[in-house]
Structure formats: C-alpha cells, structure tokens
Specification:
Elements: E1 13-16, E2 33-36, H1 37-41, E3 48-52, E4 68-72, E5 81-87, E6 90-99, E7 102-106, E8 118-119, E9 126-136
Antiparallel strand pairs: 1-2, 3-4, 4-9, 5-6, 5-9, 6-7, 7-8
Length: 139
C-alpha cells in the first residue's frame, strides 16, 4: 500500500444549512453557507491521507470496520494518540502509549481478548506513520 497525499486542487463543497440544537428544539434558521469539507477536515494537504479501517481492534475508539480515518503525518505523535503505525512491514492503527522504555501499541476492543498490546522494542522496524485527526463513519 502506497498512500498518496491529497492534491491542493481538491474541493468538496456542501451546503451548511445551519446549527441544529441537540437539546430543546428551536425554529429552523434560514442562514446557509458553503462548507468546504476538505478545508474543514484537512489541515495539511501534502501530509494528510485517508485510510479505510479493516478489522475491529479499534471499535472502542469509535473506529469501526469500513470507517474512513484521516491521518496527518505533520502532527507530532503524543501519548495516547490514535495513530497509523508501521511495524515490521505492516501498517496498523492503534492507540499509542509512549513511555520511558519506548512505545506500546494498544488495541481498543475490550470485548475481544484476541487483540493484545504490541510492545515495541529495539528489534522492531517501527515508525509512528501519522496521527488520526478525524474518523468518517456511516451512521
């Protein structure tokens, strides 16, 4: 798999109808504006990539099979971030726990003990490839 960055010329516009209350109902507003979804979801075109989730190890992080994740390589990895990692020749998305002794890649699926933490050691070919910034899901 060779990820490709998002071209600068890509735009996906939609009409933003307005705000909708998540509490008590209110009259609909007539204010409408154009919303560029790429500008909203992509901070850095050259370093942002889309991946489709394949598997269920991250369901408790709201990343379900078939969801699209937006990954930005320019975001500095931080403790507890969700990230696409390259380890020993394969890509995986996990929660990254960064400690004094290195990193541990943690699945987020409490209901399936098939997925275990992956300790990263000096013998692993390892790279935190990019940080997940958004999850796009079908409801």
């Amino acid at each position: 798999m060779i990820p490709h960055p998002i071209p600068d010329t890509v735009a996906l516009e939609a009409e933003l109808v307005g705000a909708v209350k998540a509490g008590f109902p209110s009259p609909a507003e007539d204010a409408r504006e154009k919303l560029d979804l790429v500008k909203l979801l992509v901070r850095h075109n050259a370093s942002t990539f889309f991946f489709r989730i394949d598997g269920v190890s991250m369901v408790d992080a709201d990343m379900d099979e078939g969801d699209i994740i937006i990954v930005d390589r320019s975001v500095e990895p931080y403790n507890d971030c969700k990230a696409v990692c390259f380890i020993d020749g394969e890509y995986t998305v996990k929660r990254v726990e960064i400690g004094e002794n290195g990193a541990v890649l943690l699945p987020c699926n409490e209901h399936n003990d098939k997925y275990r933490p992956i300790p990263v050691g000096p013998d692993n070919d390892f790279l935190i490839w990019g940080v997940v910034t958004y999850v796009i899901k079908k409801v």
